């Protein structure tokens, strides 16, 4: 038996599951798959693609081939603002194997791509023209592309290209840019300023006050797979014109198709993107210049192209998380109840993108303060557009907010968990909506007990272990539930099982595994009889692997497709069938077929129904219901992070000794893959807390550490055994009762570590990362 | 030019600038070995040469003619996963899977280092001659293989399970 078989074994025959319906309505019925005890749901199934990934069989985008394929290399600008006044490509063109040198002087005419969060079809990081003019907009912008027969030839040719610039003044110093900050039009489609009551007056009148500034640096995603693609303009069928066929590493295949169609002025049917495996995304694998340049160069050369960004190239072409400077001011009474909560500040941005790092997101929903003021300003800079990185907003925002809570607890002489409990809101404090499901206090209580929080020293610097000062800290984690529009799914039944198809993504989250489990449970089939297809723009729907929303988005689409499929099945049965006369709402899926709810005698297997109707297969496709739940409730995941850190009294080095996350994310669908998601997020949070920083040269606007040797991410030895636990309480208003789990893990960790450091040695660090020089 | 890769003799004519990594990926389409940084910082390209682990991105292909090269494609035997591969699946020692081939080859090479009693930075007594197989020893030795998804606990659990099987007892924490 192979590992794959072992992973798939176990009890896979769920009891009957009625069709889910109106979970999004206030009076609606919860998805029956969220109920406790549903066989298969929550089981720690090993990854269905595990065998492929451990044998080298999983092929990533830069590993596909086309006949006659050329290799690409890029030349990037070395100034942050100005013009190209000369490009000498003669040496490059004369080198062996070089097929094309493309610059703004010979690039094909391209439309400017639609920008993410600005246009509905936008997948692009910014709205700069792509190699169309002599203008340079950031230090690292591609200014030339070489195609050659081998990568070595392309790289050598790129090195030989000489570019002369006329530099113009550039805003590359955040310290100056922030003095000219502006309020953006919107933050994630909502207001950039939110006021409840009069927070400034309430703060001035409060008996206890914390008013502090916290800073967080730039970060890069650093997925271990650098962005890569292999593409060709191919003739799929005679007389239809060329199709742009792309093997990409993408977390948004459909949005990328829509955006590329606009760039090249062709119909979306003429672009086909597949992305079966993605070597990590974290928000970075959307549409950036490299895909467009590769397609343009392939067009110009008339040959297929592989473009794999170097690690440095990823830093130059793909945006990361912006730096922030945040003020958190808290005013409380002597019992710790918040009267004023102010969270404001500035994030770096450009005039060409639309993502003010939304650091106040978590603050909107976490605490019941009488008066609240939240605002985000942006400082325009000449830099590569910043973008989404795991838990945009919440990751760095909770560092500031949850550090400030710890400071207030310290001032009040109160346990920081108790302070948070005293400010637990009954309704969302800024929207006024009821929470669909909020079990934060339960998660905190259970986590504290497991962690041994009661052993925390109430005063800083109270525990020692040789040279190590030991402290404990905690922080609240939170991330919103989302279900974005556009999702649709197809289900195809054959006598051998079912294939679910949806244009969604697997970047390591466990999508293929979890959705196989869910489809099996929903359709009453064993997991072995489910094939889950994804990562192909020609599959149904449009699903973004972002915002921790994929699980819910796919769930909603499969619910709709299942209902359509059952209606089709019922339309096939004749009057002699035991199912005759039943409507979909009277049906449950069980035992590899459908039957009347609660009536074991009225049943037919899928195989029987297909055979009687003389069909070899039956397909149905449907769009997910509109996500009205988002307007009916305030919907979030919650958790509490607990950290035990040691601070060396000799060197100032910080080592995280223990880390625990206790989460409230609805129903957990796969204990194994969910635990990995939580841990993975927490480890990225640990990196954010202690070591991660994209160094940006304030003089030149150039990233100074575009390398995994100089941008430090946590390694095996930095990471303790991380405990994760969850409430497993279903949210009655979501598909499967579940919430996404991909991003919440990173939230709260920065503050939990900083608070543990304070508890260890009495030094409050308000600037990330907490490197040892800050503690000496 | 000739190389022995996963027990098979392979031939190609390559540019002297070609790395062993690019030879494997682009010439022989053995794309299981991954390119994460191409500068020896991430470990995704780890392969075994005569049983020892190296970063294939820092190795020139021409230097490795006549050596026994093993890649992730060569770990399983007769269609049966190598114990380390099976343990990675069981303990969820990966998410996206991109660093995984390097982790696997590194783990196999690292176990060989433990078996040969080679010390590491966390070995307390360098003169002891015998290395105690414990969790920090394997974690330290696996710290040259980055995993951005953060599957480190699963990776350590998987390797510890394989070592425990070999040792006949649990690996000390």
From TrEMBL, chain A:
It comes from Salinicola acroporae. Residues 55-169 form the Aldehyde oxidase/xanthine dehydrogenase a/b hammerhead domain. This is Xanthine dehydrogenase family protein molybdopterin-binding subunit. Keywords: Molybdenum, Oxidoreductase. Residues 1-44 are annotated as: Disordered. Belongs to the xanthine dehydrogenase family. The keyword Oxidoreductase applies. InterPro entries: Ald_Oxase/Xan_DH_a/b (IPR000674), Ald_Oxase/Xan_DH_a/b_sf (IPR036856), Ald_Oxase/xanthine_DH-like (IPR016208), AldOxase/xan_DH_MoCoBD1 (IPR008274), AldOxase/xan_DH_MoCoBD2 (IPR046867), AldOxase/xan_DH_Mopterin-bd_sf (IPR037165). It comes from the Bacteria. Residues 24-38 have a biased composition (Basic and acidic residues).
Automatic annotation (TrEMBL), chain B:
Keywords: Iron, Metal-binding, Oxidoreductase. Residues 1-75 form the 2Fe-2S ferredoxin-type domain. InterPro entries: 2Fe-2S-bd, 2Fe-2S-bd_dom_sf, 2Fe-2S_ferredoxin-like_sf, 2Fe-2S_ferredoxin-type, 2Fe2S_fd_BS, Aldehyde_Oxdr_Iron-Sulfur, Beta-grasp_dom_sf. Signal peptide: none annotated. The keyword Metal-binding applies. It comes from Salinicola acroporae. Gene3D superfamilies: 3.10.20.30, [2Fe-2S]-binding domain. Pfam families: Fer2, Fer2_2. This is (2Fe-2S)-binding protein.
């Amino acid at each position: 038996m192979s590992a794959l078989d072992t992973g798939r074994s176990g009890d896979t025959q769920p009891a009957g599951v009625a069709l889910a319906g109106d979970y999004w309505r206030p009076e609606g019925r919860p998805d029956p798959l969220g109920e406790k005890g549903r066989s298969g749901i929550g089981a720690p199934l090993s990854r269905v693609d595990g065998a492929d990934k451990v044998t080298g069989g999983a092929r990533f985008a830069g590993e596909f081939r086309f006949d006659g394929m050329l290799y690409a290399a890029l030349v990037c600008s070395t100034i942050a603002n100005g013009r190209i006044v000369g490009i000498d490509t003669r040496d490059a063109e004369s080198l062996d194997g070089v097929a094309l040198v493309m610059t703004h002087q010979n690039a094909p005419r391209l439309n400017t791509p639609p920008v993410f969060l600005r246009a509905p079809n936008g997948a692009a990081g910014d709205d700069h023209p792509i190699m169309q003019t002599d203008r340079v907009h950031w230090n690292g912008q591609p200014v030339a592309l070489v195609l050659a027969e081998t990568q070595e030839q392309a790289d050598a040719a790129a090195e030989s290209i000489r570019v002369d610039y006329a530099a113009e003044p550039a805003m590359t110093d955040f310290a100056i840019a922030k003095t000219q900050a502006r309020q953006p039009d919107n933050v994630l489609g909502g207001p950039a300023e939110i006021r409840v009551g009069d927070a400034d007056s309430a703060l001035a009148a409060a008996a206890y006050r914390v008013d502090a500034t916290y800073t967080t640096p730039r970060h890069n995603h650093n997925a271990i797979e650098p962005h890569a693609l292999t593409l060709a303009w191919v003739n799929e069928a005679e007389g239809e014109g060329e199709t742009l066929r792309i093997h990409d590493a993408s977390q948004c295949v459909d949005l990328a198709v829509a955006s590329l169609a606009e760039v090249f002025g062709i119909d979306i049917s003429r672009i086909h993107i597949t992305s079966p495996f993605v070597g990590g995304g974290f928000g970075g694998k959307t549409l950036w210049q490299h895909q467009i340049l590769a397609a343009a160069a392939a067009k110009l050369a008339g040959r297929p192209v592989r473009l794999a960004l170097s690690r440095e190239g990823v830093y130059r072409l793909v945006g990361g998380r912006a730096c922030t400077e945040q003020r958190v001011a808290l005013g409380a009474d002597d019992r710790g109840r918040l009267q004023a909560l102010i969270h404001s500040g500035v994030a770096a941005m450009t005039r060409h993108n639309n993502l003010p790092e939304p650091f106040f997101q978590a603050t909107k929903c976490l605490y019941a303060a009488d008066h609240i003021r939240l605002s985000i300003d942006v400082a325009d800079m000449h830099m590569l557009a910043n973008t989404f990185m795991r838990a945009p907003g919440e990751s760095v925002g909770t560092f500031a907010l949850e550090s400030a809570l710890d400071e207030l607890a310290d001032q009040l002489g109160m346990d920081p968990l108790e302070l948070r409990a005293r400010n637990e809101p009954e309704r969302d404090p800024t929207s006024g909506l009821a929470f669909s499901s909020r079990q934060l206090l339960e998660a905190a209580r259970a986590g504290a007990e497991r962690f041994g929080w009661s052993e925390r020293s109430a005063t800083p610097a109270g525990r020692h272990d040789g040279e190590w000062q030991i402290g404990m800290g905690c922080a609240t984690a939170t991330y919103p539930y989302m279900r974005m529009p556009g999702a649709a799914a197809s289900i195809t039944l054959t006598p051998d099982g079912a294939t679910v198809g949806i244009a969604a993504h697997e970047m390591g989250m466990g999508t293929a595994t979890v959705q196989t489990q869910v489809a099996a449970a929903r359709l009453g089939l064993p997991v072995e009889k489910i094939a889950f297809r994804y990562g192909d723009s020609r599959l149904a729907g449009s699903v973004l692997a972002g915002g921790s929303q994929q699980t819910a988005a796919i769930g909603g689409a499969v619910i709709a497709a299942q209902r359509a499929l059952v209606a089709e099945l019922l339309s096939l049965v004749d009057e002699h069938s035991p199912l005759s006369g039943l409507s979909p709402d009277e049906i449950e899926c069980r035992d590899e077929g459908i039957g009347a709810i609660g009536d074991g005698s009225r049943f037919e297997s899928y195989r029987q129904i297909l055979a009687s109707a003389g069909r070899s297969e039956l397909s149905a496709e449907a769009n997910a219901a509109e996500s009205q739940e988002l307007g009916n409730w305030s919907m979030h995941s919650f958790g509490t992070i607990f950290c035990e850190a040691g601070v060396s009294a000799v060197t100032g080095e910080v080592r995280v000794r223990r880390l625990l996350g206790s989460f409230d994310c609805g129903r957990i669908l796969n204990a194994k893959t969910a635990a990995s998601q939580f841990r993975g997020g927490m480890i990225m949070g640990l990196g954010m807390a202690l070591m991660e920083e994209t160094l940006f040269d304030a003089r030149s606007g150039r990233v100074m550490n575009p390398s995994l040797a100089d941008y430090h991410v946590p390694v095996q030895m930095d990471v303790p055994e991380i405990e994760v636990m969850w409430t497993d309480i279903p949210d009655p208003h979501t598909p499967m009762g579940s919430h996404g789990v991909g991003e919440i893990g990173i939230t709260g960790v920065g503050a939990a570590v900083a608070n543990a450091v304070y508890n260890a040695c009495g030094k409050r660090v308000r600037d990330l990362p907490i490197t040892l020089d800050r503690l000496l | 030019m000739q190389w022995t890769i996963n027990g098979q003799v392979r031939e190609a004519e390559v540019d002297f600038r070609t790395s062993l990594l690019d030879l494997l990926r682009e010439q022989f389409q053995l794309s299981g070995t991954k390119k994460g940084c191409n500068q020896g910082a991430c470990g995704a390209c780890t392969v075994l040469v005569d049983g020892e682990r190296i970063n294939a991105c820092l190795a020139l292909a021409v230097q490795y003619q006549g050596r026994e090269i093993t890649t992730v494609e060569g770990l399983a035997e007769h269609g049966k996963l190598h114990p380390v591969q099976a343990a990675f699946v069981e303990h969820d020692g990966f998410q996206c899977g991109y660093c995984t081939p390097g982790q696997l080859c590194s783990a196999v090479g690292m176990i060989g280092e433990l078996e040969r009693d080679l010390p590491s930075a966390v070995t307390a007594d360098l003169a002891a001659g015998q290395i105690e197989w414990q969790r920090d020893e394997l974690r330290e030795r696996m710290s040259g293989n980055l995993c951005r998804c953060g599957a480190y606990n699963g990776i350590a659990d998987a390797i510890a399970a394989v070592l425990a099987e070999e040792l006949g007892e649990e690996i000390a924490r």
